[in-house]
Amino acid sequence: MHLSKELLVLSCASLVAFASCTPERSPFDISPAESMDPKRAEAPYPAIEIPADADMESPRWKGIDLTPAPPVIPVSANEEAKSFVLKPGYKMEPILSEPQIREPAAIQFDGNGRMYVLELRSYMQDIDANGELFATSRISRWEDKDDDGVYETGVVFLDSLVFPRFVVPFGPNTILSMESNEDHVYKFTDTDGDGKADKKELFATGLGRSGNVEHQTSFLTWTMDNWMYSTYNSRRIRWTPDGVIQEPTGNPWGQWGVTQDNYGQMWFQDGAGGVPQSFQFPLVYGNFRVEGQFQEGFREPYSLVKLADFEPGMRETKPDGSLNNVTGSAGNDVFRGDKLPKELVGQYFYGEPVARIVRQVRSDKKEGLTYLQNQYKDSESEFIQSTDPLFRPVDMATAPDGTMYIVDMYRGIIQEGNWTQDGSYLRTKIQQYQMDDVIGNGRIWRLTYEGMPRSKEKPRMYDETTAELVKHLEHPNGWWRDQAQQNIILRQDKSVAGELEKMVNSSSNELARIHALWTLEGLGVLNVDLVRKLMKDPSPAIRIQALRASETLYKYGEKSLAEDYRGLASDSNPEVAIQAVQSAYLLKIDDVEKLLQSSLKTNHSKGIQLVASQLLEREAEAKKAAATKYSTKEQALFAQGKTIFDSYCATCHGPKGLGTPTGGGELIAPAFSGSPRIMGHPEYAVKTLLHGLTGAIEGKEYEGVMISMSSNDDQWVASVVSYIRNEFGNKGSFVDPDYVAQIRKETASRESNYNYDELVGEIPKALFPQDNWKVSASSTALQGVGSTKDPSYAFSFKGWKTETAQEPSMWFQVELPKDQQFAELEFDSGAEQFPIKYTVSVSSDGKSWTEVGSGTGVKGLNTLRLKAQAKGRFLKIQTTEKGDQPWAMRQLKIYAR
Fold first, then answer.
1. Residue ranges of the Cytochrome c domain (predicted)?
2. What is d(CA 655, CA 81) in angstroms, rounded to the nearest whole number?
3. Which of 466, 485, 489, 555 could covalently link to 522 via disulfide, CB atoms 3.0 to 4.6 Å apart?
4. What is the DSSP string of 701-767?
């Protein structure tokens, strides 16, 4: 899609009914109001109906104004621009708007400066959230080819999505994304250069979450430490040349927004909480309680919109009808550009779309701890305010041109359907102003400053050499540094290692030194001598980054670094000392508890006192929890497996399950952390241990050879497999010795090691639901606001269940496009709604059925291995007994050989 301004204006009559288009008219002057019934604003204002059960004396309702009111009418982008109240010198200008985009919720830029827009086109299209999970959302990509500052050239990169959670540019013509109620992140690539993704590959699993669309994973973000973080997930993932690995982290407490500052500190944006979260220390070190981190008055917004249309109702409404307490927030950015005033660099910004404001946050650092305040609290103001009730800032980003872009969803309803149900205060206020009619819009704004024009330097990183990318690590705009680092690492071009070391050692630009350090780490060529040198650098910031980067070397076996952590725990700078004890604790160096206790006695800075004491509390809690985390049998398997792994397996697979590097930076054996092979079907690991594995794995050669361990008994094998499936950030089912005995018997005739392709050909694989699957059921309940009765939810976190309590012969059926050799079923029924007893049958025609398994339901995870003759195109699960509860399934997995 390429619309010049002239073509856009000429075509606007077909896009916007009632528009009066002329060649002189800017596309940003086309008002959404013109597409609405012109009689709407003139009609008698509807009377407001008070819900019958409303308690008019409660804090939520008391004092509410229900006077019939004129509807809120949307205006053009150029008209909306007049509604902004900005600080002196600033200007907001539209760069992309409806009808080209609709319901924009987030933006990201790729290495060539192209802007990807996450368009949530199914979000709250009516007050009841009907169709919220229809596959109508999309990810579009936009460019400003004529360099006039407006993004006029676009293409739909990915279409027909179910409320996508994020977009992550991932190299040339490639993005990562995930849909709602799913557990899988996919990589989408445009292989033929037409601007549309035509290749889909599984990238990572285990990041999904169920619940309403506001409460699911979002904003997967590649940060300076070369890991990717998202909201809600207490884990981080990382791309490596050997696959995606993962590690546990603290809880981000974020909902919609992840960003980082110039030193790699992440900030997560809470939603309903209305405030930033997890900004004290890197999330990998866990969560810390810091009393008073939000200074007095931080939660009070200064809004110019006075409609009292807030979910909490009158209890959080000022006398003038504006909001008195932040109740929602979305999108965030630590500004790192170079084309706005310097005092904005390093400042945190986020949107409060309920208050219609963008807030600038002042960070005060004291003794290693951070305290936040509204930059304009003293003047009872905000960085950006608007008088337009439809201004809904939901994301912001430092742009390649050095300015800040702000995503404005520009709509009537911003809250999800759970909060607009019949009888709710919010529904009454929305209908009072007819705001549920205002949908299908959206604008992206550029914030500029007088006398500081945007940069016209065009990013072309995908077309540049790796050596040219290294130079961008010194760019004054943090976006350029981030993208250069990421793209060098994706290329894995180690030829620039010398230039990077030179930059680390001699650049006068501290931020360039830090990026060069992490680029070396991401290439796998960081050495311990360089790290130790940087640990003695005059700059505390460099010492901190050296400590953080050294953790990778420690995980790969450089245990001598423990002494460096002990030494820097006494650093005169409290932030360096905090980093040292956090690194030591994360890596569990010997006698780390003694180090923490010593720090408490000798370092009286508030930050060290807080961190050391809370880490000691955490250690005590972890020991207590370890005793109850698993059953007695599982604890025995885990403990035995750990002993075996530490004694034998760690030599090749690394003490932290990340693999052991050779002298050339390659790995002796593959990593276990986050491995889809290890967390997939357990038969893979069991057969590997019993018979060994040689040759390339997914095209990757390793120095080591996995020999057969069949001389060990079934308990030995089961314990090792159980341990590696539940350590290193992994979470999988435990393996019983009886299962190992069964596999041993079935493969007793084997006399040689497996090669990878042969082994994978035998292992049951989870079949991922496709559009051409037909899923049906005898009974399906409605699952939540805005949902449809769709039995295919059984494959997602959302789940499926019967409409009534289970009866004999209730069935759930899947029809595939071709026959499969079914091997196993796995599903989660929760604590109560499991099938009492059930059978599984298969068929090739849907008429003649063969029973291939039967089971008794249990709480939580249900697994059933099917008979060898389980081949067919249809698979049916059927209950055989009556129960008091409905039958439910979520995260259903069908395995086939």
1. 636-728
2. 57
3. 489
4. --SS-B---TTS-HHHHHHHHHHHTSSTT-------HHHHHHHHHHTTT--SPEEHHHHHHHS-EEP
Q: How far apart are the first and last CA of the chain?
A: 43
Does the pLDDT at position 12 exceed 50?
Answer: no
Q: Is residue 118 domain-shared with residue 190, that is, in the same domain? A: yes
Report the range of poorest mean pLDDT among 102-111, 230-239, 788-797, 813-822. 788-797
| 592 and 474 share one domain | yes
In angstroms, the CA 737 to CA 637 distance is: 10
* Same-domain check for residues 652 and 789: no
Assign residue 778 the CATH number of its domain.
Answer: 2.60.120.260
Each residue's pLDDT tens digit, 457-467:
999 999 999 99
Shared domain check, 434 and 298? yes
Q: Does residue 104 contact residue 444 with C-beta atoms inside 8 Å?
A: yes
| Backbone φ, ψ for residue 761 (5° rounding) | -65, -25
Q: Helix or strand or coil: residue 420?
A: coil
β-pair partners for 359: 350
List, in order, residues 6 or more apart from 732 with CB less than 8 Å away: 678, 679, 682, 725, 726
Considering the domain architecture, whether residues 201 and 338 belong to the same structural domain is answered as yes
Q: Sorting pLDDT into bands at 50, 70 and 90, what band is 334?
A: very high
CATH number of the domain bearing residue 645: 1.10.760.10
Report whether 589 contacts 562 (CB < 8 A): yes
- Residue 651 shares a structural domain with residue 788: no
Q: How far apart (Å, rounded) are the C-alpha atoms in residues 292 and 387?
A: 32
Q: Provide, for the chain, the percentages of residues in helix, strand and coil under a 3-state DSSP scheme, each rounded to the nearest 5.
A: 30, 25, 50
Work out the angle at residue 855's Cα, subtended by the Cα atoms of residues 849 and 856, and round it to the nearest 5 degrees: 140
User: Cis before residue 682, ω within 30 degrees of 0?
Assistant: no
Mean predicted confidence (pLDDT) in 97-111 = 97
Please check the confidence at residue 770 and state whether its pLDDT lies above 90.
no
Average pLDDT in the 473-480 region?
98
Is the per-residue pLDDT at 772 higher than 90?
Answer: no
Q: Is residue 768 part of a domain?
A: no
Please say whether the beta carbons of 138 and 78 come within 8 A: no
- Give domain status of residue 11, yes or no: yes
Domain CATH code at residue 186? 2.120.10.30
End-of-domain residue from the set 401, 417, 449: 449
Q: Above 50 in pLDDT, residue 4? A: no
In a shared domain, residues 219 and 83: yes
Give whole-number Cα distances, 157 to 274, 444, 543, 802, in Å. 32, 18, 42, 37
Q: How many domains does the chain have?
A: 4
Q: How far apart are CA 503 and CA 500, in angstroms?
A: 5
* Whether the predicted pLDDT of 11 surpasses 50: no
Residue 193 CB-half CA count within 13 A? 0
Domain final residue, candidates 624, 646, 668: 624
Q: The domain containing residue 882 runs over which residues?
A: 774-896
Collect all residues with Cβ–Cβ distance below 8 Å to 711 and sequence separation of at least 6. none
The per-residue DSSP string of 815-861 comes to EEEEEEEEEEEEEE-TTT---SEEEEEEESSSSS-EEEEEEE--SSE
Picking from 129, 212, 50, 163, the residue whose alpha carbon sits closest to that of residue 421 is 129
Task: Verify that 121 and 222 share a domain, yes or no.
Answer: yes
CB 787 within 8 A of CB 132: yes
pTM here is: 0.82
Does the residue 769 lie in any domain? no
Q: 543-559: per-residue pLDDT in tens?
A: 999 999 999 999 988 99
| 215, pLDDT greater than 90 | no
- Between CA 451 and CA 350 the distance in angstroms is 25
Please name the residues in contact with 425: beta carbons below 8 A apart, sequence gap of 6 or more. Answer: 54, 60, 61, 64, 311, 313, 314
SS3 809: coil
589 is a domain residue: yes
Q: Write the CATH number for 510.
A: 1.25.10.10
Residue 567 C-alpha from the chain's centroid: 36
